Amino acid sequence: IENGLLDDDIAYWRDTLGALPPLAPFPTDRTPPAGTAGTLQQIDLELRDADLGRLRAFAGENGCSVYGALMTAFHVALYLRSGRRHQIVSANLSNRHHPALERTVGNYAD
Question: What percent of the chain has pLDDT over 90?
Answer without folding.
Answer: 15
